[in-house]
Model the fold of this input.
Amino acid sequence: MILNTIYLPAVIEVISRLQAGGINVEGRKWYRVFKARCVDLGKDPSDPSISPLELAQQLLRGPLRKTISLMESVQ
Done:
């Protein structure tokens, strides 16, 4: 769970760059997994109408929500 909070900014950056057309990742191994997860969710990561933060949250199964809940339970 905590590891996903580390990945979140990187995933947001990838989605942002895909939407801006400033990245070519088609041949990358990690992109196949990334794209398959997007397809499973019915999302196109290059669609600029999708919020990069919201899509990243969906892809990583809500790491911010889980982290906030964890922090609240510790207090």
User: Anything to note?
Assistant: The mean pLDDT is 87. Helices lie at 2-20, 29-41, 52-59, 63-74.
